[in-house]
Specification:
Shape: globular
Number of strands: 10
Radius of gyration: 16 Å
Number of helices: 4
Distance between the termini: 45 Å
Strand order of the largest sheet: 3-2-1-4
Strand content: 15-25%
Structural class: alpha/beta
Length: 163
């Protein structure tokens, strides 16, 4: 489902129908940064996307902080599907991302750090570039997904390394 305008916020929504991309957000002890990231997602109109947040904070989940909670409510009012998960103990960012990937259900997904603000229209401009079916490409460390496991290519700056 595309973003709904505020005039439609009170109407019922059919959950995951039509979700093209899962935006996967690992976070830990950064509620203000997460709120800004969610604000950027709230500004996206297309493609239809869902958000999966996994929190490894030591105290309360970051989405309970007033700023982050407000943006969670805005995304829900827009008709976005949000999944809020706790994932403890911390075992590193790679394991945290794999946990998120395991909870992804869309054909495509995008890993987004909890301190990144996307300008309006950024997801639409990404199109298929940088987002692979069930995985993501990171410019500094190209990755692909095989059987929902993240594996790095032997690529440096676009050239294959001698084997």
């Amino acid at each position: 489902m595309s973003r709904r305008s505020s005039e439609q916020w009170a109407r019922r929504v059919d959950g995951q129908a039509g979700v093209e991309v899962d935006v996967l957000l690992p976070t830990c002890n950064r509620p203000a940064e997460l709120a800004v990231t969610l604000a950027g997602l709230a500004a996206q109109a297309e493609p239809a996307f869902a958000v999966v947040i996994s929190d490894q904070s030591t105290g309360s989940p970051v989405w309970e902080h007033p700023a982050a909670a407000a943006m969670v409510r805005v995304l829900q009012a827009q008709g976005r599907s949000l999944t809020l998960l706790r994932h403890l103990p911390c075992r590193g960012l790679a394991e945290h991302r794999q946990f998120l990937l395991d909870h992804s259900t869309a054909e495509k997904c995008l890993f987004l750090d909890d301190d990144v603000w996307l300008e309006p229209g950024a997801l639409e401009r990404f199109g298929g570039a940088g987002i692979l079916p069930s995985g993501a490409v990171h410019l500094e460390s190209p990755t692909t997904v095989t059987e929902r496991q993240v594996e790095a290519y032997d690529v440096v700056l676009g050239e294959e390394q001698a084997g």
